[in-house]
Design a protein that fits this description.
Blueprint lengths: L1 H18 L12 H7 L4 E6 L13 E5 L5 E4 L10 H8 L4 E6 L9 E3 L18 E4 L2 E4 L1 E4 L4 E3 L12 E7 L11 E5 L12 E6 L14 E5 L4 E2 L16 E7 L4 E8 L6 E7 L13 E4 L10 E11 L4 H14 L1 E2 L11 E2 L5 E3 L8 E2 L1 E3 L10 E2 L5 E3 L2 E5 L10 E4 L10 E2 L5 E3 L4 E4 L12 E4 L9 E2 L5 E2 L5 E4 L9 E6 L11 E2 L5 E3 L2 E5 L10 E4 L10 E2 L5 E3 L4 E4 L12 E4 L9 E2 L1
Antiparallel strand pairs: 1-19, 2-3, 2-4, 4-5, 5-9, 6-7, 6-20, 8-19, 9-18, 10-15, 10-19, 11-12, 11-18, 12-13, 13-14, 15-16, 16-17, 21-33, 22-24, 23-28, 25-26, 26-27, 27-28, 29-30, 30-31, 31-32, 34-45, 35-36, 36-40, 37-38, 38-39, 39-40, 41-42, 42-43, 43-44
Helix pairs in contact: 2-4
Amino acid sequence: MRSRLRAVVVLLLGLGCLAAAPQPAQAATSQPCDIYGAAGTPCVGAHSTTRALYSGYGGRLYQVRRASDGALLDIGLLAAGGYADADAQDAFCTGTACVVTVVYDQSPRHNDLTIEGPGTAGGQDVGANAAALPVTAGGHHVYGLYFNGRTGYRHRVGAGVATGGQPEGMYMVAAGGHVNDQCCFDYGNAEAEIADTGNGHMDAVSLTTRCVKTPPCTGAGPWVVADLENGLYLGSGPNPANLGNATPFVTALLKNDGQHTFALKGGDSRTGGLSTWWNGALPPGGYQPMHLEGSIVLGTGGDNSNRAIGSFFEGVMTAGYPTDAADDAVQANIVAAGYGGGANSPAPAAPLTGPGGKCADGQDANGPGVAVQLWDCQGSADQRWIHGSDQSVSALGRCLHLVGNATGNGTKVELADCAGGAYQRWVQQADGSLRNPVSGRCLDSPSGATANGTKLQIWDCNGLAPQKFAVTGGGPVTGPGSKCADVAGDDTGAGNAAVQLWDCQPGALDQHWLRGANSSLRTLGRCLDVVGGATANGAKVQLFDCNGAGAQNWVQQADGTLRNPASGRCLDSPNGATANGTRLQLYDCNGSAAQRFTVN
C-alpha cells in the first residue's frame, strides 16, 4: 500500500509540474543525492552510518565485525530512504566489541570505503569502534563513526570521481567538539596510492583546529578548510573572515572547479543555513589547475597521516560543481534529518596519567600485542584513552589487556583487539588506582619507576604512588535501579539545573561525568553541587559553576556510596526511589541501595 501511495503522489506531482511553471524546489522526500542529482551534479560517493542519502535507497549502510568470533553483519535501514537499524548492531554485538569494516557507497558507483592500509606517513589503520558514538537522528537511535587516531577508510580510484582538473563538490557532517590540530580529518578526493604525490593532488574537506597555511585565523576553531595536499587552506591567502564552526554537529562543505576557484561553507547541522567562508581563487603553486587522482579518503590525509581525531555521520561527493541553491537545499535536508545527542562522543578521549606525571603510552601501535608503557605526556593519539561504559580503557582502536589473560603479580599489559572480556576491564578506585576485577590487582609501574619506556603491569592493590592512574575521560554515574545521574534539561548545562535519576542513555552528555582533582564531579562544564551549600538531610543537589567549595566534593567509599565530606552525608535517592526524574539529595550515610553510586 505504501509503494502504491507513493506512486500516486509522484504521478500527481508530475501532473502539477506540467501545469505550472518550472520550480527549483525539491519534493519533500528528496535527500541530499536526489537534490544534487536534480541540479545536474550527481553523487559519485554517498556514505553514512546514520541514514539514507537517496529517498529511494534501501540497501546497506555499513558492515561491522564482531571481536568474539570474527562474524560480519551488514547494517541496513529501518525503511527505504530512512534511518539506520542500530538495534540490529546492538543485538549482534551484545557482550563483545564490534568495529566498522566497510562504509558502503549508496550511489550507483559502488565506491565503498574499507579500512585504510599503510601509507608513507602512517601505518595500517584500524576500524572505528562501532558503538563509540551513539547519537540520534530523526528521533532514532543511530551510530556515527568515532575517529581517535589511527582510524581511517579509503577507496582506491573511485568510479566517476573527479580526476585531473575536473570539477567536484563534497560535504560531511562532523562534530565541532571532537577535533584536534593534527593531520588530517579529511573526507574527499585523494591520491591513487597512499602517498603524497604533490600539490593539487588532493581535494578534501577537513575540520581542524590547525591554522598553518593561511593565518591569521579567527578564534580557536575548528575551521572548515580544504586539504589540497601540502596545505590546509582557509582561502588562497589569509582569511580571518572564516569564523569557524564549533557546534556539536557541523556541516562542512567544499567545492572546487578544478581550474581556478574553490569555495568553503560551514553551518550548524541542526539549525539554520550555511555561511560562505571562502569563494575565490585557488592557491598559487601547483593548484591551478588541480591534478586529482580520484580515490576517496575518510579520516586521514592522502598519505595516511592519521593522528587526527573526529566524528563522521554522513557525506557525499559529486561530479561537477554544485550550485549554491543545491547546497542550501542540502543543508535544509540535513537540518530536517534531526541530529541530536552527544556528537562529541559519550566517552571523550583523554590522557591516562600515572606515576611521575607521565602518561600511559601505546607506542603508536600499528597492531595488537604492543606493550603499554610510561612516557612523557605529548597529547598524541596513542596517549588518548577512552574509559568506556563497559569499563574498558582503549586507545588507537584497541583495548588495555592482560598479556596472555594472566592474572598474577607482574603480568604485563598490552594493547589488544577489544573483545569486551574481563581481562579488559579497569575500574577507577577511590584511592586513584585502576583495578582489574578478574585478577583483583591494580595497574602498576614496577618498583615505582617513572622513566620513559617503563612497561606497565598489574600488582596487588596497595594505594601507593606507583598505582595512581587517573582516567580523565569520565563516564556515567550509575545509581539505584541501574539508573544514571542525569541533568534535567537535556544537555543544556544550565546553572542550577536539578540532578536526578534517569534511564541511562549512551551518548548523553549530561550523563557523562568527569572526576576532578579536588574530588569534584563535572559535566557540561559545571559541577555536582549541594544547593546553597546546605549540609542537612534532604538538601537537594544541582549542577552549578565549579568553584572548589566543599559542597562540590564527592569521595567514593568502599561500600559504593559517594560521601560529601563538608556535610558528612552521602548522595541519596529519597526513600530508594528509582523512577525517572527522582531528584537526588544528601542523607546520613547508611550503605543502603539508595546510596550506591558508581563513578565509572
